[in-house]
């Protein structure tokens, strides 16, 4: 599964981020209210089984500890998101009889706790488009997708850029108009996924 490959790459980037943070220990008076960025999951698009993942974030720092942002996201996947780490993770026999394309714009609240340590909560309403194995559209649906994240903000190059390695738990309490064949696959698994590594990056302005 492409998510497994991307997670491996992200873990590699976390090591690089640690090195950068050690080289950026000096404080700076430069402070930026706004930022734009994306996610290292974009690297998955380099795979032959590309999820066509795209994400664009725009954020505003209300205070030094409180941040709100919008996230525009789209991607395509072919297996239930609730499959945990283990033997079934990445097993093609668990795949849907087709795929799902999602589009959405979510809202994120981020709270800094100590230095760069933060938690965040995302609410992401998604339009879902279901496709069969011949990539023919079946129907549309809706999902409410949420993410709880804990991570660390690392400023780079005098605070002009940043990276944010993190660990997340995701859950999706609402899914509507799901084709029965897809629902049968989903029902085997939880409506959440834990310990997903992430890496956001961006530019401040």
Any overview of this molecule?
With 205 residues, the chain is mainly β. The chain has one domain: Porin (Beta Barrel), CATH 2.40.160. The chain is 14% helix and 52% strand. Strands 1-2-3-4-5-6-8-9 form an 8-stranded antiparallel β-barrel. It is elongated and about 55 Å long. The termini are far apart. The model has no long low-confidence stretch (mean pLDDT 91).
The ordered string of helix (H) and strand (E) elements is HEEEEEEEEHE
Individual helix count: 2
Radius of gyration: 18 Å
Beta-strand percent range: over 45%
CATH overall fold name: Porin
Q: What is the CATH architecture annotation?
A: Beta Barrel
What's the shape? Answer: elongated
Mean pLDDT: 91
Structural class: mainly beta
Q: Quickly count the domains.
A: 1
CATH class: Mainly Beta
Largest sheet: 8 strands, antiparallel, barrel
Which properties best describe this structure?
2 helices, mainly beta, 52% strand, eight-stranded antiparallel β-barrel, Porin, 9 strands, 205 residues
